[in-house]
Amino acid sequence: MKSTGVRRGGTSAEVGCALSRPVPWRWKDAFRRPVGIRRDGRRVVRPGSATGECDRRAHGDRGAADAYDGVRSHPERRMRLSKSRFTAGLQCARLLWWRVHEPDAPELAPDETRQAVFDQGHRVGAAARARFPGGVLIDLPHDAFEQRVTATRAAMDGGAPAIFEASFVADDTFVAVDALERRPGGWRLVEVKSSTRVKTQHLQDVAVQVHVVRGSGVPVESAEVMHVNRACTYPDLSDLFARVPVLPEVERILPGVPGRLRAQLAMLGGDLPTVAIGLHCEEPYPCPFQGRCWPEWPADHVRRLYFVGKRSWELAANGYTSIDRLPDGMTLHPAAERQRRALRLGRRIVEPTLAVALERLVGPLAVIDFETVSPAIPVWDGCHPYDPVPAQFSCHAQEADGAWTHHHWLANDTADPRPELIRRLADACRGARTILAYYAPFEAGVLAQAALAFPKLHDPVQSILDRIVDAHPLVRDHVYDPGFNGSFSLKAVLPVLVPGLGYDDLPIAEGQAASRHIERMLFGDPPPHGAERRALRDALRRYCERDTLGVVRLVETLRTLAAGAAGPV
After folding, report:
1. How many C-beta neighbours within 10 Å does residue 150 have?
2. Which residues in 161-215 belong to E strands, given as ranges?
3. How many CA atoms lie within 13 A of 421 on its CB side?
């Protein structure tokens, strides 16, 4: 039976069974999909359940942000902060305002990538709880604030050694602590993170929790960030987590927390604040509301400059918003310099050096691509957290007569996929003199890691590594088309250089989505069966095949371009 809170009988309060039993964890639980995840008192909608797409309105020269200026708050709505709302407000006041006043905004419905992050955090959290024997879980709806606080107090009074999702309210701020551990001198607050190190934003997260818990009268004598330990090696998961004391750093932050909370609550009681766009739009996390604040960048905007990174904000602040207006003396990456020339000329640039680069591709060729899974909690021998493990490959192999044959393999169960995948891949590439991959260092690294885990795979792996060539520099170092928009990813260059061969027609059209679906197929609880599983496997096959077919057609196009390149522009 699942507890609905605190059951009262006579003069005593009895904690429901979900609060009084330890929380077990099994390795298979790491891949269980939660029925619903609650954030800030609202349910996070799963992909596909959103009622609409973000309306990217056009607003002339004033930009997208102006469409939302003057939007008013709800004067009768009770404002309450949480630890995630607090940290969102530290990043941007508009982000917090929209999260509170438009909790059902379509931008907040997670796409597959964000949903994968949520699910991963849920799995890591479940594994972390197993590190606290006898701990009890406050298993109530996230927005049942009063019941959660009451249940937490009951668990504390009942002698629980650790409480998960321990809930407190102070200064109109609600926090649910990942793990509150009883200590001789008080309580230890533990924040669980699926990252592999402590980050600056984690300290703010812990600080607001310490403030609220202490404000509720609970003595917090230590605080830790419990993060995934990359040194952990399966099958020994005893050191899956590293626990880092952070209270001294948090104590330095704490004096400023009350003022920030008051400022955020006051801001939420007013109209939508005005905030200029900047680096905070992407750090520490990409803002889901960028489409409201950012204009549609033109093709020559400095934000699209290749390899510019954070420098784009500095350039824009100094008045350099257009790539073709950047000073000629400014040092740029060679590909970015080619991009600037192409934009100034308004046409594609093909360097004569392309023909020389293509001479490395001695046939017969093979083109390979992997799809990988990277579980935070490793499940195969020799793997560390987040190690990419190949679970699927596609290979287009060229025959002696120039014809192409497609080979494919996709794991179908929880057995380690690497031995079978490498055996089949080596066989598919047997006749190739050059093996191409787009971003080959990734494929090479995955193969080398597999050979370390399985010494018997050394020879076939080395045979592939001796012949592998990266196709990515063939484009980046020799070709630029304004249609690339500053990116040399296969998704960006393929539709431009090979029109009609993109990814829009595929049910799975992105690598992270493919990884997520493979993980669900192998470890889902329950995994897809029957027609759903067959459809999923077919969609994965088509996506991986498109990557290798795309490189085949891309090389053909590059040969044509090289033949027509008369000289540098």
Report:
1. 19
2. 162-170, 173-183, 186-193
3. 27
DSSP H/E element including 38: strand 38-39
| Rounded Cα distance, 339 and 351, in Å | 12
3-state secondary structure at position 192 = strand
Q: Do 474 and 439 meet the contact criterion of CB atoms below 8 Å apart? A: no
Q: What is the pTM of this model?
A: 0.82
pLDDT digits (tens, 9 = 90+) for 292-335: 998 788 888 888 899 888 888 888 877 888 898 888 888 899 99
Please determine, for residue 57, whether its predicted confidence score (pLDDT) is greater than 60: no
Closest by CA position to 340, among listed 356, 327, 354: 327
Tokens of 38: 């609650």
Backbone angles phi, psi at 151, to 5 degrees: -65, -35
Q: Report yes or no: 398 and 363 within 8 Å, Cβ to Cβ.
A: yes
Angle (CA) 215-267-274 rounded to 5° is: 145
- CA 303, chain centre distance (Å): 21
pLDDT in tens, 421-436: 999 999 999 999 999 9
Domain layout of the chain by residue ranges: 6-44+68-263, 295-347, 356-564
The CATH code of the domain at 6-44+68-263 is 3.90.320
Residues 6+ apart with CB under 8 A from 543: 371, 503, 506, 508, 509, 514
What would the two tokens of residue 27 be?
Answer: 């390795």
- Among candidate residues 343, 357, 276, the one with its CA nearest the CA of residue 306: 343
Class of domain 356-564: alpha beta
